[in-house]
Amino acid sequence: MGKFGELYQSGDWKGEKHVPVIHIKDKVKKGEIVELRVNIGEEIPHPNTLEHHIKWLKVYFYGEGDKFPVEIGNYVMNSHGEYGVFTEPDITIKFKVEKSGIIYATSYCNIHGLWENSKKVEVE
Amino acid sequence: MGKFGELYQSGDWKGEKHVPVIHIKDKVKKGEIVELRVNIGEEIPHPNTLEHHIKWLKVYFYGEGDKFPVEIGNYVMNSHGEYGVFTEPDITIKFKVEKSGIIYATSYCNIHGLWENSKKVEVE
Amino acid sequence: MGKFGELYQSGDWKGEKHVPVIHIKDKVKKGEIVELRVNIGEEIPHPNTLEHHIKWLKVYFYGEGDKFPVEIGNYVMNSHGEYGVFTEPDITIKFKVEKSGIIYATSYCNIHGLWENSKKVEVE
Amino acid sequence: MGKFGELYQSGDWKGEKHVPVIHIKDKVKKGEIVELRVNIGEEIPHPNTLEHHIKWLKVYFYGEGDKFPVEIGNYVMNSHGEYGVFTEPDITIKFKVEKSGIIYATSYCNIHGLWENSKKVEVE
Ligand SMILES: [Fe+3]
Ligand SMILES: [Fe+3]
Ligand SMILES: [Fe+3]
Ligand SMILES: [Fe+3]
């Protein structure tokens, strides 16, 4: 019986459409309000139908020297055709951090499971 | 025993810091990917502490002639000081609609309850 | 442009399948861990398919003399046939309160919108 | 830069208070509505305060022979003292599966990060 964490998949988002793309400045200032965009399918679009869609995006921060990651936010995409409405897996959020660390973006496709990506952020 | 819906509060966001501010074009094209920003405290900042913070933002679409609203997305702000991380109540999402209707943005403050705002969107 | 709260629908759960059914003792003790079951479709089952299902259940507590309701919990049902898995709109949660008040249960059907029900709880 | 999945921690719930405890029958029938209880701190209670609490519980099913796990449900505990209300990290949910597989329960503590546990379920 494998560990849950091993179920997260990753890869190069330019070739694998499920991998969350992380858009954030490489360097931010301590306590500055930082903007972060996470989206799925930037290079190769992912389906968005009732049968097959991205259900949520989550963002974590894992600070240098910290023992545990912190969950910044969780976004659930809830419309996949109902009454002609389609929610895109594309979100821009804002937050503040006090030190350098790693941003993790995770996502869930109702057919293809859990995916992750990460990016280093330097706080100056 | 009052109805649940009556617990939603509203007002002018320029004077009441809890009211979600809705930023979206007045006119969009059918099937176009539309950008929507919802934030709290644009004029008067809201506290963001463990003791007092905005916990989530939700967005609905209620199409002209439809009987029921559709939930577009739900964003939960999860960090309020843990390890120096603060999630801001400010989100930009994307979606598609096929006809004119009303956008509802709702929010929840852990101390001051439920809030709402709305804005008409015309699809041409 | 109507108010958001007016979109919540209600009724008698014995005749209207969308109304959340609230199961809780009428009287609880202050600080006791209370069990609460909320389910949909107890008398008349609601569909559970990709096309038509209950997406979430939320529970609030509105204490006597309080100005604002508090959100106790939010449960999202995420499987509606994927790989043969179906999540039922039926949840039992636990919490503590310190005074009498009203429990509100709310739900969302992806086709028929927002629903609510309420039940008084007396703390002795 | 480590992988996200490696941040999930586990252990014996009798000695480590963060590990989700999974209560489910060992054998269930195909298509039967199964009851699953997941709780935190059954042996050693976990704190439930604004400063330190369990924020959510998630449940997945990973069927034998399937390539990907399915998310059954997500429960967010939202009250940690506001107006005297405390949501317990203890939930009972219901679902149906069609074949044997593994149940994964995951949780998030706002101070001690991500945790997981798993249990095999045989469908007869
Ligand atoms: Fe997919
Ligand atoms: Fe407030
Ligand atoms: Fe329905
Ligand atoms: Fe902890």
From TrEMBL, chains A, B, C, D:
Listed SUPFAM superfamilies: Superoxide reductase-like
Keywords assigned: Electron transport, Iron, Metal-binding, Transport
MF GO annotations: iron ion binding; oxidoreductase activity
CDD domains linked to this entry: SORL_classII
Presence of keyword Ion transport: no
The keyword Transferase is annotated on this UniProt entry: no
Stretches assigned to the Desulfoferrodoxin ferrous iron-binding domain: 11-117
Entry similarity comment: Belongs to the desulfoferrodoxin family.
Name of the molecule in the record: Superoxide reductase
